[in-house]
Structures are given as structure tokens and as C-alpha cells.
Write a structure and sequence with these properties.
GO terms for molecular function: DNA binding; DNA-binding transcription factor activity. The chain has 258 residues and is of the alpha+beta class. 28% of the residues lie in helices and 32% in strands. The chain is built from eight helices and ten strands. The chain has a six-stranded antiparallel sheet. It has a two-stranded antiparallel ribbon with strand order 1-2. It has a two-stranded parallel sheet with strand order 3-10. The longest helix is centred in the first third of the chain and has 14 residues, at 29-42. It is elongated and about 75 Å long.
């Protein structure tokens, strides 16, 4: 399954039965809920990627108020056991995607190979003068016009990375329109005859996500992103793309291949 039109294949836990936590035991109700959900995951009743019922439904099933339920879910989120995605709900957290960095690094192929549905959307595109870093990477004069494309890529509807990509504007005219229609940088470059690009250089760093990254990746404050600066080139090793991808650090496992 490829492209942004694929429907994520997720399973709901709406049919899972929950008994009300015991009162008067000396163990807080929210802690009992945490332990119950942890046990259900450990014993396979809740599997990775499964969507939990809504807060209201869970509160009714456990026989507690929503404040108590939210404290339990907050604890599970902080422990990395569940993950809330705005507009979709709360899910049992999936294992990190094994993401190889090699000569041919293609997001859609990697995510599909992990058994998950890749998707993407265009955030913005614009023509801007090449900064010193972009000019050096693309071997262009400082200030020459470049096309910048910003995208969010996801797996099963969960945002994985937000990337900024720069191209020589005259060489990649209308690339942003192709990206918007396909949801894929690779397919857009293929339409321009540049699909066989290869990785020339990769640099990996890490830092705390900024406000825009937290919003686009649905991350709470304080979470880390892994930043991958990469240069991709054509068959003659001439740079055609400089990119800066920010990955939600707990959703991927980077594997650097020789």
C-alpha cells in the first residue's frame, strides 16, 4: 500500500471489557487502571496500533470520573505505552519503525516494508534565495533561487517526520505541484526523470522539538527529534536535493548501512 490515499489499517479496542477498579484497597484508582491496561497489552488483549475507546467510554467502563481516567492515560503516555494523536484518538504505541539510511533511502518503501501504510501531505512550498547551507549542499551561488518544499510523512496515519527539501528552482519547476498531487517526493521526482537519486551525504543530530514540529508531529513539550541533513544526487553525483528531516525520536530506529 502506497500514497496518501491509503486508509490506515487500525484495530479498535471498543469491544474490550473492563472491570471497575477496586475501591478501599489503598491503591489509587488511576494506578489500577494503568496496571489493567498494561496487563491487557502484555497478555495480547490490546495489541500495538490498536485504538482505545474514547475517554468518556473508558470512564464509563471503569466506573470512574474523567479526571481519574485522564490521569491514568497521561501516565501511560508519559511511559510511552500509549500515544494520543489529535483527531484520531489514543492508540497502543507501536514499535519504532526500523529506518535504514543507505544509498537509496525511500520513505514509502521503508514504511511499506514494515507492514504499515505510508502517507504524506504538503505543508508549504515557496521560492526563496539559497542560504549558505543550501547553496553549499546544492553547489549553487549564494542567493540563487531554490524551491523549498515542506512535508509531513506518516505511517498508518501517525506522523513520523516533517521534512524541508530544497531544489534548484529552474531544474525542478512544478515539483511542488507533483508532490501535492502524489503525496510522495520520490514519485514527483520520477515524473521529472529524477527518480533514481542516490544518497551522497547524511548527517544526524538530535535536539528538542520546536513548537511547529510538536504541532506537526503531535508531540508533547520536551520531546526529542532526530534531525537528518541529507544530500541526494543524480547518476553523475550532481546534487539535486538537500533535505532536513526531523523524525519523532521514539517512533523510528535509524539504521545506518554501509
Amino acid at each position: 500500500m502506497n500514497g496518501s490515499d491509503d486508509t490506515p489499517m487500525t484495530t479498535s479496542a471498543d469491544e474490550t471489557e473492563y472491570a471497575a477498579p477496586a475501591r478501599g484497597t489503598g491503591v489509587a484508582l488511576w494506578k489500577q487502571i494503568v496496571e489493567r491496561i498494561e496487563l491487557d497489552i502484555a497478555e495480547g488483549r490490546l495489541s500495538p496500533g490498536m485504538r482505545l475507546p474514547t475517554e468518556m467510554e473508558l470512564a464509563e467502563r471503569f466506573g470512574v470520573n474523567r479526571h481519574t481516567l485522564r490521569r491514568a492515560l497521561s501516565t501511560l503516555t508519559e511511559q510511552g505505552i500509549v500515544e494520543a494523536t489529535p483527531g484520531r484518538g489514543t492508540f497502543v504505541k507501536q514499535l519504532p519503525i526500523r529506518y535504514p539510511i543507505a544509498a537509496r533511502t525511500r520513505f514509502s518503501e521503508i514504511v511499506s516494508g514494515e507492514g504499515r501504510a505510508p502517507g504524506g501531505r504538503l505543508v508549504r512550498s515557496l521560492i526563496e534565495p539559497a542560504s549558505a547551507a543550501v547553496a553549499e549542499a546544492l553547489r549553487l551561488p549564494l542567493g540563487q533561487e531554490v524551491l523549498r518544499i515542506d512535508m509531513v510523512r506518516d505511517a498508518d496515519g501517525v506522523p513520523i517526520t516533517v521534512g524541508s527539501h530544497w531544489y534548484e528552482a529552474t531544474r525542478c519547476r512544478d515539483l511542488d505541484l507533483l508532490v501535492a498531487s502524489t503525496g510522495s517526493v520520490t514519485r514527483a521526482l520520477e515524473a521529472l526523470g529524477l527518480g533514481d537519486y542516490r544518497r551522497l551525504e547524511t548527517r544526524i543530530t538530535a535536539r528538542v522539538a520546536d513548537e511547529e514540529e510538536r504541532q506537526l508531529l503531535s508531540l508533547p513539550a520536551g520531546r526529542t527529534v532526530m534531525v537528518i541533513d541529507a544530500i541526494n544526487g543524480d547518476a553523475r553525483r550532481q546534487p539535486i536535493q538537500y533535505s532536513r528531516a526531523r523524525f519523532a525520536a521514539d517512533r523510528v530506529q535509524l539504521v545506518v548501512k554501509n
